[in-house]
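Translate sequence into structure tokens.
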Amino acid sequence: MTTQTIKLTKPVDFLPKNLQDSWQGVDALMSVDEDRIIINRVRSTPTLSELKPALKEIGKDITQKDIDDAVREVRSEQK
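Result follows.
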């Protein structure tokens, strides 16, 4: 089976009409063999800077006690 990463550009006319717009411009992994073609969307992993707002919001709920408890738990498992 041959596998290659491709970018689906407009028009993506080989897809059913109801999927064409949602697949336009995406990166995809295409696997091809003698009898079939399999196309999987490649989802990018967000960068740390993209995650920063969400992490900052989550971090507001973490107390010093939470940190101390987590450190204590990890240290007790290492003994």
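Note: The mean pLDDT is 89.
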